[in-house]
Amino acid sequence: MALKAYIVFAHEGHTSFCHEILERTKQTLDREGISYTVRDLYQQDFQPVFRGEDMHRVEEGHVSADIAEEQQQITDADLLVMIFPVWWWSPPAIMKGYFDRVFTNGFAFRYEEKGPVGLLNGKQALVMTTTRESEHDMRASGMDEVMKKQMADGTLSMMGYKTLYHNFAAVPYVSEAARRAMLDEVEHLLKNTLQHVEV
Questions:
Q1: 8 Å CB contact between 30 and 62
Q2: Contacts of 75 (CB under 8 A, 6+ apart)
Q3: Scanning 21, 48, 140, 169, which has its CA 20 to 30 A from the CA of 84?
């Protein structure tokens, strides 16, 4: 069975380092012969607000057409790749809204007596983020663990994904050589994740 990847990307414009990460991700998947679809949330003007009507639909066991399409893409993909900057130690609002609207109760997880149980088991996820802050400063403040828990452990891992999270730190301040090394790391992370994809 051919592997499929779904890339969810959240950064406005066209020139950010996140865009460079996206391009290296696509190049690596192309070289590995992996089919993929890219969902650029800004380019596609994704509506991120989880409105009351959305909640009522979920409670009734269905979702709007745009969300049904996203859930089908996620169901079909063996690998989920998410790329976005960290703002206020969180994903951008458009990505947070993607989590709220797409990974719904009954699709991504369900509640049982002892708490939530993931429903997206047997899949891999790779989450790559960028920050202005350095690794040293984030470790000193403990924000590196906050980011990992919020963006991987408390979301995708809870849903059943085997999740690898990596942040590229101090991006605006490092040398071009360091940025090239970061892009090489993107390729390494992706290849390592692909080795563990179940088909």
A1: no
A2: none
A3: 140
